[in-house]
Amino acid sequence: MSQVFKKHERYWSGIAIYGDYKPWKAHKEAGGDRSNFPEHSGRALDLKDGKQEGINYFKAIIEPELADKIVIVTVPSHDPAKPSLGTKKLAAALAENGERINGADCLGPVFS
Questions:
Q1: How big is the CA angle at 89 (ends 62 and 52), to the nearest 5 degrees?
Q2: Of the residues 19, 95, 97, 99, which has the maximum number of CB atoms within 10 A of its CB?
Q3: Contacts of 34 (CB under 8 A, 6+ apart)
Q4: What are the boundaries of each domain within the chain?
Q5: What is the pLDDT of residues 56-96, one digit of tens each?
Q6: Cα separation of 102 and 92, whole Å?
């Protein structure tokens, strides 16, 4: 198996960690508002919604660390009614540079 990341500082047991995510509801219940919502959490919500700001944010963080000659896949949503369009857009953006293949459509939901 080829190496996916050029660097390994963000690794934990094969998983790259890019920041903490605080759900909006938990932030608001703790007395927070829009003025002090953590940027990383906000961009994660943007990505979930397929917004370009979230895609650009995570591409800027992840792309420089990716190796070439890899296939980028996404894990499908557990709910087929809610496709992960933001992560598919991110996969496509990450595959634009280098020798990478966008394999975001290779995996699909499993129905029981």
A1: 80
A2: 95
A3: none
A4: 11-102
A5: 999 999 998 888 888 998 888 777 777 778 999 999 999 99
A6: 6
